[in-house]
Design brief:
This protein is an alpha+beta fold and 596 residues long. Helix content is 29%, strand content 23%. A hairpin with a 2-residue loop joins strand 2 and strand 3. The protein binds one RNA strand of 77 nucleotides through strand 1, strand 2 and helix 2.
Length: 596
RNA sequence: GGAGACGUAGUUCAGUCGGUUAGAACGCCGGCCUGUCACGCCGGAGGUCGCGAGUUCGAGUCUCGUCGUCUCCGCCA
């Protein structure tokens, strides 16, 4: 017989009754009746009830066993009597009556939290004992889901003719983007590698190398502060790139992958399998953000013209001064108590608004603090344009265009939550397309790339030569799901002369393009195919599939918010020998000198 | 770098208006129990109320500071 097991803890059923088996696993729970002890034995695969009868030599040892100890038992599989069947257990029709018992690993310490029930506990403790946390059902499931997601991505893309490549982890620091993680070179003292923020240039080089369809579940490293949906340090992208494709080709390819992932790995309903495309400008106009949650409709409606001459000075002054008046129709909000409207206004003020005017259509009348300042004609136009009917409430934002859109966009999200408009079982994708190539830095007035500098401008060289830079659009797109930006992508600029001109507009001289991006610059002179790609964030995908609000819940060993690994003790000081070998000297600011 | 929320037993929480010895459940230790499946019953141990100062006759409770955790802003081409 195998030293540890003949079956796993989820495998046994009525078919095995009467046979002798060996099982190993963790003590999930113990029920000691004095005369008989029941142990629910758990492993990766499931739970099996073990029965310890009082006449066995190891009875007292089994009675002493504590939860989470690892044991091996030999025993006979017995069909349970009708009254003792447990329908809540996959193996509930049988039990194993133990004839031998080996303590593999006894738990001596008090557990820092319970493994057999999923109580909330401080995340710090969970991270410090991650190996215990990962035994719990929720985390165990999440990590498995992550694995299934990777497996399905690979299976799908390989079947579609994609090839997975590895690209370097030790590479060069890139001039744009986030802060780099640096790795000192021993061979070249004073010089550094950087960990890749994304394999962007490598995947483009692979296309120039004649490989047609690239993908990689690629680790990316960015030294930026964390958020609930942003792990500090490292994360993974489903990185893709294709040659000789149009934007439409890429959209179709990605839609197929996303739909398959959600259909096979979640129970969610996919709102539309061909994802709606929203121009960047429209997204800002309607939703006040470039990552709208379109699980609910509720667009912002422009009513600036209606209030040109309004008695309400807040409105008419803004309209006259080039500002805008935007309105949200909160369907069904009119029945809410006054406190609801006060809370909405308090939220808006907290976000920097001067106030949040509102009107409620109730009992055939339009009520609210500003109602008496609005003329009958203005009111008629307002109701017509917003489609407000009995039971609806209108919320107003007035001010400078960008700020007002952004503010009301936030109000829109809160309103949708408060009014229970979000179908939690829905996944609603959209493409945000036609991003501007450039934007003006509000502080410096400089023209800068608004996204990826390697994107192809729409209209090509002609557009760069003839158009106002701020009017030029790029073949640059985002995929957004339920208000979360999953990825950016682009059809790339593969023509060196267009690349030079694009960088020139953003203030980069020719010499700088050649020295900052030597690989692509050189490669594009030796026959570069038109190409494009995208890189959906794997972690955020798994978050959506698992319905988890925090990215750390779908990573086995995440860093905490302050970018520390509490289990391994990283980051940490290194020895003087290691520093000497790298010709590095530590120069801490005085207040941060370690006290050890 | 900035803002907010939180911090009471190993864990989850309660703790009234500032007032006697800070409670409960789970876990842990001991005892009882032969059919439970979140087993049950009896008993016990376990607390620098994050830390420090202040107000007060008296602080878990009020004030200030500080540390920690999380969330958000900045940042993330």
């Amino acid at each position: 017989m195998h030293p540890y097991r003949t079956h796993n803890c989820g495998a046994l059923g009525l078919d095995n009754a009467g046979t002798t088996v060996k099982l190993s696993g963790w003590v999930h729970r113990k029920r000691d009746h004095g005369g008989v002890v029941f142990i629910d034995l758990r492993d990766h695969y499931g739970l099996t009830q073990i029965v310890i009868n009082p006449d066995v030599p190891f009875f007292s040892e089994a009675e002493r066993v504590r939860n989470e100890s690892v044991i091996t038992i030999v025993g006979e599989v017995v069909k349970r009597t009708a009254e003792t069947i447990n329908p809540n257990m996959d193996t509930g029709e049988i039990e194993v009556v133990a004839t031998d018992f080996i303590m593999e690993s006894f738990v001596e310490e008090t557990l820092p939290f319970t493994v057999n029930q999923e109580l909330e506990c401080p995340e710090e403790t969970r991270l410090a004992y991650r190996f215990l946390d990962l035994r719990r059902e929720r985390m165990h499931k999440n990590i498995l889901l992550r694995s299934k997601t990777c497996a399905l991505v690979r299976e799908h893309l390989v079947a579609k003719g994609f090839v997975e490549y590895h690209t370097p982890i030790l590479t060069s620091s890139s001039p744009e983007g986030a802060r780099d993680y640096l790795v000192p070179s021993r061979v070249y003292p004073g010089q550094f590698y950087a960990l890749p923020q994304a394999p962007q240039q490598f995947k483009q080089l692979l296309m120039v190398s004649g490989f047609d369809r690239y993908f990689q579940i690629a680790p990316c490293f960015r030294d930026e502060d964390s958020r609930a949906d942003r792990s500090p340090g490292e994360f993974y992208q489903i990185d893709m790139e294709m040659s000789f494709i149009t934007q439409d080709d890429l959209f179709a390819e990605l839609e197929e992958l996303m739909v398959r992932l959600f259909r096979e790995l979640s129970n969610k309903t996919i709102a539309a399998e061909v994802f709606p495309r929203i121009a960047y400008r429209d997204a800002m106009e309607w939703y006040g953000t470039d990552k709208p949650d379109i699980r609910y409709e509720m667009k912002m409606i422009d009513c600036t013209d209606i209030f040109q001459n309004c008695e309400l000075k807040v409105f008419s002054h803004q309209a006259a001064a080039g500002g805008v008046i935007k309105v949200l129709n909160g369907k069904g909000a009119a029945e809410r108590p006054r406190k609801f409207f006060d809370d909405m206004e308090r939220y808006a003020r907290g976000e920097g608004a001067k106030g949040l005017a509102w009107l409620a259509v109730r009992d055939g009348e339009v009520k609210g603090p500003i109602a008496k300042f609005i003329s009958d004609d203005e009111m008629r136009q307002l109701l017509e344009r917003t489609g407000a009917v009995e039971g609806d409430a209108l919320f107003f934002g007035a001010g400078q265009a960008d700020e007002t859109r952004e503010l009301l966009g936030k109000v829109r999200q809160l309103l949708a939550r408060q009014l229970d408009m979000i179908d939690q079982n829905l996944v609603s994708f959209c493409w945000i397309v036609d991003f501007p190539m450039y934007e003006k830095n509000p502080d410096t007035g400089q023209i800068e790339f608004s996204h990826n500098p390697f994107s192809m401008p729409q209209g090509g060289m002609d557009a760069l030569l003839t158009k106002d830079p701020l009017d030029i659009l790029a073949y640059q797109y985002d995929i957004v799901c339920n208000g979360i930006e999953l990825s950016s992508g682009a059809i790339r600029n593969h023509r060196p002369e267009v690349m030079l001109k694009a960088f020139e507009i953003a203030g980069y001289p020719e010499s700088e393009v050649k020295t900052q991006f030597p690989a692509l610059w050189k490669a594009f002179h030796y026959g570069a195919p038109p190409h494009g790609g995208i890189a959906p964030g794997l972690d955020r995908m798994v978050m959506l599939l698992a319905d988890e609000p925090n990215i750390r819940e779908i990573i086995a060993f995440p860093l905490n918010q302050r970018a520390q690994d509490l289990l391994m003790g990283a980051p940490n000081y290194v020895s003087q020998e290691q520093l000497d070998e790298l010709c590095l000297e530590i120069n801490l600011p005085p207040e941060e000198t370690p006290t050890v």
